[in-house]
Records
---
Amino acid sequence: MIKNNELAKFFQHSYKLMQNYKHGRRYYHTLMKEDNSPVVIRDHTDQITYVVEGSGTVYLNGKEQNINAGNILLIESGTTIRFVANSEGLTLFHIHIPDTGREDDRRILEGKDFNRYMIE
């Protein structure tokens, strides 16, 4: 059995590894308060999201939840998703299952996208 603090340590370690990986921005991004955050859906991909730092709000199928650093979200395919930063920077680390095809599985239902891959 894995305890939440052990899982959080694992995600923090993985996040640090991904920062030096040339395709790491596929797996994490930082939202700022002023970023436009669209409503998206993935039809064929489950998602695990770890909140690395900051705080914000996630809307899953329209239901609002506050999120903070250390939170882990399990999001099944077919769920509408919207993340909004409440603090100066909400950093999210995403794992998709399956990872193959994840770029083509993300559909924007409402709003406009922001540049998730911009190097800071």
---
Amino acid sequence: MKITTKAQQQAVLKRLDKFSRFTDSSIGIPFTKFQIGAEAVIGLVPVVGDMAGLLLSGYVLVEAQRAGASKDVKLLMLRNMGIDFVGGLLPVVGDAFDAIYKANTRNTRLLRNYLEKQLAVEPPPPPFPWKTLIGLSVLLAVITAGLILLL
């Protein structure tokens, strides 16, 4: 399924915005402006939490595939997922990295930019109707010649 309408684009992005907010910034840290998400909390469980976070991040990639995102966009998403996963594996520092990097938000932004560019591209103008122009010119010449012969 390739996204072809603004309504389809908005539906996909609305789902991904909710998902990204849940996984990356749904929990406010008291007395700060900083927010973490469910993925950072899950990532506190060594290795298994990071694997679960990687699986969760796969949802954005699946939506990008369904939306018809380009190979380049999907590769950038995979890169973000890999950075988030490897960064999260680091002892102690990895948990903070998970909370800060926010791969799902980055990937949602990548897809949003891609979709907006795709829908903003105007279709090429139709080719000039040369055959019609020539046909009408010949018809007009025949009618004119016929009128001149009748007069």
---
Amino acid sequence: MISIDEQKKKLRKEIRNLKKQQTQEQKETASASIIESIEKHSFFKNAETVMVYWSMADEVITHEAIQKWHMEKRIILPCVKGDILELREYTGIDSMKEGDFFKILEPQGPLFTELNELDLIIVPGVAFDINNNRMGRGKAYYDGLLKTTNAFKLGICFDFQLLENIPADSHDIPMDGIISDRRATIIP
């Protein structure tokens, strides 16, 4: 029998190959659809403080949404520091600097530590399933954070990343909902 870790490793490789097949135009179109779906839901409309991620090249594109939303909401972004995620407030593109670990832009400035103030956390993942399970890149950055907050946890992904079932451990934190460019597991 294949262990959960081996199943996850195999699935990560499969998804990585599917991501490579996506054109930039496909990613942009799908990302716009996902962002539009997020903006329609009450969990977003009612949120004052939203944690989201500055997307890497193979993820749902969030840059434009962050720049748009920060005029209306308090936007918190994660910064990878060793084995943990530090949270910092996004105050504009001028406050961003390339991070040390993933070479993506990260906000500078004071740490955000008031996790009870987070209303919504928009979470990337390698794969999700229709039971709201999430599989990340394997470092458990988000799992450590997600278990400490009562914020609404929303996974976002391209449709090929939303599967019937994915391998999940007891330490994997499930989402409250998932939105892809074609489906959602959220009850409106």
